[in-house]
Amino acid sequence: MSAKQSTVFVALFSGINVGGNRIVKMAELKAFFEGLGFSGVATYVQSGNVVFRAKNGDAAALTKELETAFEKKWGFNSRILVRDAGWFERLVRDNPYPEVAGEPTKLHAYALEREPTAEEAQRLADKCTGPERFEIKGDVLYLHAPDGLGKSVFANLIPRTLKVPGTARNWRSVLALLDMAGKAGA
Fold first, then answer.
1. Which among 82, 114, 133, 178 is least surrounded, fewest beta carbons within 10 Å?
2. Which residues are paired to 133 by β-bridges?
3. Rounded to two decimals, what is the model's pTM?
4. β-pairing verdict for 140-144 and 166-170
5. How confident is the model over 141-150, as pLDDT tens digits?
6. Residue 151, SS3 per DSSP
7. Secondary element (H or E) of residue 58
8. What is the DSSP letter of 32?
9. HSE-CB of 168 using CA atoms within 13 angstroms
């Protein structure tokens, strides 16, 4: 199959290889994707990022397929968000904080399962009282945490306040994944 007949996707896993729990080696994850028939598979860092090519261009169907097969193989559920390369291009292009893009540990993007409602976004805005700033654009939440994510009290409030499942990546990871997706599509 030629590259033109398939689409480049990125799978973002949440809840694996965090704090020594739910360990999944990236080599095993790569082999898992290849075993499902995906091509051009590459992983990035231990938190579970996989760039791959698929004939099926439906991210929602791919998400279901991957989550089901993953749980069957590893025996636990990991929420997986699948996005195409164009989504990553928009994410980077639409960054509302370009002035901090050079400090990748202070800028994060949360891939959300869906766009939050105005009420959900307002509930989160009401909790943002520290040095952080955030902006939601569609199904992406951009967070500037000037003291870093690890020291951000607000960052810990995001999942339970917003109540929209998602997974965060620092800006270095976002740019690396975009670069990998671009190379996979070449």
1. 114
2. 144
3. 0.91
4. unpaired
5. 999 999 998 8
6. helix
7. none
8. H
9. 19
* Residue matched to tokens 């938190």: 47
Q: SS3 letters for 78-126?
A: CCEEEEEHHHHHHHHHCCCCHHHCCCCCCEEEEEECCCCCHHHHHHHHH
Beta bridge partners of 110: 141, 168
Whole-angstrom distance, CA of residue 167 vs CA of residue 186: 27
Q: Is residue 186 part of a domain?
A: no
Place of tokens 């080599």: 27
Of 65, 85, 105, which residue constitutes the final position of a domain?
A: 85
Domain closes at, from 35, 63, 85: 85
- Region of poorest pLDDT, from 2-6, 14-18, 86-90: 2-6
- The residues that bridge with 54 in the sheet, in sequence order, are 7
Token digits of residue 131: 């040095």
Reading phi first (left if > 0) and then psi (alpha if -120 to 50, else beta), residue 121 is in: alpha
Q: How many domains does the chain have?
A: 2
**For 115, how many CA atoms within 13 A lie in the half-sphere containing its CB?**
5
